[in-house]
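The step that takes the researchers longest sounds almost clerical: writing a folded protein down as plain text. The outcome of that step, for a single protein, is printed below.
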Amino acid sequence: MTSRTQPAIVSGGRLRNWVIGVGAGLVALAGLVVGQEYGNTSTKDLHPRLVAWLSAAAVLVFGAIATGRISRIAAHQASRRSTSAAGGVRLTVAVTGYLIAVVASLGLLNYTHLLVGAGVAGIVLGIAAQQSLGNVFAGLVLLLARPFAVGDRIRVRAGALGGIFDAWVRETSLTYVTLRTDDGIMRVPNSVMLAAGVVQLPRTGAPPPLAVVLPPTGPPIATEGASNEPPGVQPGAPPG
């Protein structure tokens, strides 16, 4: 395979994912509209019940297909900016899409008690994982806004980080931004980086090396009352 044909194959794969993802999403949306308008599982009539079940199945199946394709596209776009965040972006988009498809299907089937229970559980989990979810959403905002990229030299102004300092961006992910400073490697939560002021600096020079603490060297320091005579000689004794 030549280098010219490989980008064409990759571009064709992305276009196919777009076409299949958008088409499946439109079918799922049409199933949701039809199910809400003409479906009803509470009646004894067979036709509205059949419409509701078929619409719910269409929303679930085609919603899953659309979610899978769109998550691949989102992961590819994220990998162009940060390879370490691609997997997290794909997982986040996939989980969100699957949850929407499942909730919409249950809504068409009038399983309101399950939706209420899932909503309460989601609220409890959201409160428990508030900080982690905040870092994830802040990471998505940083990937979309892109105030800095890997390899950039930046100046960060943040009171939570002790003021103003210069650093090199080493890695970005959905939870942390890894910076290389004069003192070594610093991993900053995405929510802190999103709230901080960031100034782009010219890429001059190389990143600072990692700080290495070496043991002190040099002649011993004489303390008060200590003798500078060689070992075995009493202080004040005449030389032999």
User: Anything to note?
Assistant: The two ends are 89 Å apart (CA to CA). The helical segments are 5-38, 46-79, 86-108, 112-128, 130-145, 190-195. The longest strand covers residues 163-172.
